[in-house]
Hints:
This protein is α/β, with parallel strands linked by helices. Helix content is 43%, strand content 20%. α3 crosses α4. It starts with a strand and ends with a strand. The model has no long low-confidence stretch (mean pLDDT 92).
Amino acid sequence: MEKSKVLIIGGTGYLGKRLVKASLAEGHETYILHRAEIGVDIDKVQMLLSFKEQGAHLVSGSFTDHQSLVKAIKLVDVVICAISGVHIRSHQILLQLKLIDAIKDAGNVKVYIHI
């Protein structure tokens, strides 16, 4: 089976961390998009460092920085978005639209999955 380069957005969340583990276990080159401000959450920082030790690549990016999203997406051929939280539904939709715009601009993604 051909291995993919997978970007997981929301990789420290409930579903995201399981997706990261599964992607690594299947031997896919796995990238995790993380926000710079995650440094204030020690548990998430430790989780990211653990994933890095297991072979994941950490990529800094933000939905407020279009070019950072495009740069991260250009590294992969599969994007999985597992973001969640207390955001209102319309905010989640706006974030997805920003991500889709970045995927279009990158021009290389074969598969996009939103969970």
